[in-house]
């Protein structure tokens, strides 16, 4: 009986610690996704400036270079551009994405849709650069949040687990 109780207490402590780690991961995931978006938009800017390829083709190529959720956004937008305008497809892909980005992050990224496919080359490049500047600000905010909250949630999970174990003993 004591062995079962001991195993249960260890399981509670481990589960609580793992929950804290899982919650803390959303902060590092957000930073990673913002960096991937910046990388993807840099590729987009260079491709649009130098190759003059259509936006759906560029997005498809970006989706092959950028893996994970961010690559999937570009792939979905590229597919949707076959049946709708570039701006609408971009907003739809962002809205349907499964990322750790906040709503503010998504709004900044959706801002690119206003000019996507509607202006000349310079207008689109300027809109990409503007979005990159906004993303840089969001990335700095995300890094501050990560440094502040990531360690806290890991520690909090372990502390709560330990407190539960002490109470049950």
Provide a short characterization of the protein structure.
Helices cover 82% and strands 0% of the residues.
Give the tags.
mainly alpha, 169 residues, 82% helix, 6 helices
Characterize the overall form: elongated
Number of E-type strands: 0
Q: In the residues, how many domains can be counted? A: 1
Distance between the termini: 13 Å
Largest sheet entry = none
Instruction: Pick out the low-confidence regions.
Output: none
Q: How much beta, percentage-wise?
A: under 5%
Query: How helical, in percent, are the residues?
Result: over 70%
Radius of gyration: 21 Å
The number of distinct helices, counting runs of at least 4 residues, comes to 6
Order of helices and strands: HHHHHH
- What structural category characterises the helix and strand content? mainly alpha
Mean pLDDT: 86
Question: What this model shows, in words?
Answer:
- This protein is mostly helical.
- It has one domain.
- The chain is 82% helix and 0% strand.
- The chain has six helices and no strands.
- The protein has helices spanning 2-50, 55-65, 68-80, 86-95, 103-110, 121-168.
- Helix 1 runs antiparallel to helix 2 (55-65), helix 2 packs antiparallel against helix 3 and helix 5 packs antiparallel against helix 6.
- The radius of gyration is 21 Å and the shape is elongated.
- The relative contact order is 0.17.
- The mean pLDDT is 86.
